[in-house]
Amino acid sequence: MRVPCPTYLSPIGLGQKESYLLGFFNESRSLILGPTDEEALAQFILRVAFSDASDATNPVLQGVLALASLQMHGSLQSFRYKHLVISSVKGSSNWFDEKTLLRNLMATMLLYHYELSLESNSKGRWVNYLCTVKKIINTSPAIHKLLRHEYSVFLDWIYYHEVLAEFTVRHWKVPYEGCGWAPMARSLSIVEKSSSKAEDNIGCPIDVLQLLVHTCRQAIVTKTSEIEDVNGEIEDTNVLEHNISMIVGDYGPVHVESASSPDRNSMISDLHRIACLIYVNRVVHCVSGTEFRHRRLVREGILLLTKMQTCQNAWPLFIVACEAVGDDQRLAIMDVFERSRQDRRRRSSHVHFIQHTVEAVWNQHDLNTENHVDYLTIFNAVVGGLPFIPPFA
């Protein structure tokens, strides 16, 4: 494997082993970071990792090496790099410094991804690192220093994983203290209230993430007092849902005529949109699984997954797959699972976990022949019955 040498990399003296790990990270970033193959996030992380040519102990660089080593060699050989990351972040003294704050937040996010990639049932430990990121963001007086356009891809990356963690915590049986609050909207397109189409840095449209947060607040939060402005929340939800529905269109993205075939990142964005509309239908509008427009969305989602052949994106895969009914649709979903497991860039046992959970939902739907049990009850029972807080990122 050839180690790339982009212009932003500083000439830190790396050994042959570390150079090989760096090359693996650069070529397989979507395996580790998700949700797409976009280069913007990986390039930004590497810029920060090599921002100081004299500092080979940079926690971001060590985090990159830890992730790559975990994927290539397993947890035993990667632990040394992970330990260096933790020690460096804990030993930081000046958290008011913009550079230190950026490094430590990014390093902690890389530790979060490290935990997501583990094979064992200790996967639930990912929440500890994400909680740490959330606490820093919500309490650091210096966080405003990072609200700049040049950091937008980094902020969107955190926002994506915060939102999916919010979804997970709301459905799981024991919400973790400190992770129960909804994510703060830090995407620059939201903060600046930009009317132009936001740059898609991470592969999931920001309006989908916003709608998912609003949906969790409305449909799952049990205490109305947790929502400061109920009417405003509903209005925002309606606007976001309308905008996303307009993009999906009446016939779905699969049938849109185009001079060229859509790239994979566009398909992943469309898959997130369809999954979001399906989820809103179910938990906000309480739509029946047999309703025509809902079944059309499900059909479009399955057709899109079939066209993609493989999918490493846990949340939209889970939402769409749970809706499959009949042999044809379920066989199509099982084929996607099988192909995804064989993908050389698959995320550990990620696909196996999603398949196991989807099959549990199918079993409950098949037993619910008289529709006496609503969708959300089944959903919560399956997700809440897992032995560890599940990763849907």
Question: What report would you give on this structure?
Answer:
- The protein folds into 2 domains: 1-175, no CATH class; 205-392, no CATH class.
- With 393 residues, it is mainly α.
- Helix content is 61%, strand content 0%.
- The protein has helices spanning 16-27, 29-32, 39-49, 59-73, 75-90, 98-116, 126-139, 152-171, 188-191, 206-219, 230-248, 264-283, 292-308, 314-322, 326-342, 350-367, 375-384.
- It contains 17 helices and no strands.
- Helix 11 crosses helix 12 and helix 12 runs antiparallel to helix 13 (292-308).
- This is Transcription factor domain-containing protein.
- Keywords: Nucleus.
- GO terms for molecular function: DNA-binding transcription factor activity; transcription cis-regulatory region binding.
Secondary structure topology:
Blueprint: H1 16-27, H2 29-32, H3 39-49, H4 59-73, H5 75-90, H6 98-116, H7 126-139, H8 152-171, H9 188-191, H10 206-219, H11 230-248, H12 264-283, H13 292-308, H14 314-322, H15 326-342, H16 350-367, H17 375-384
Helix pairs in contact: 1-4, 3-4, 4-5, 4-6, 5-6, 6-7, 7-8, 8-10, 10-11, 10-12, 11-12, 12-13, 12-14, 13-15, 14-16, 16-17
Name the features.
mainly alpha, disordered N terminus, 393 residues, globular, DNA-binding transcription factor activity, single chain
Kindly report the average pLDDT value.
82
What structural class do you assign from the helix and strand content? mainly alpha
Elements, N to C (H/E): HHHHHHHHHHHHHHHHH
Helical fraction equals 55-70%
Low-confidence parts, pLDDT < 50 over ≥5 residues? 1-11
What is the alpha-carbon Rg in Å?
Answer: 21 Å
The number of helices is 17
Shape: globular
Largest sheet: none
Beta fraction of the residues? under 5%
* Strand count: 0
**Whole-number total of structural domains:** 2
Distance between the termini: 28 Å
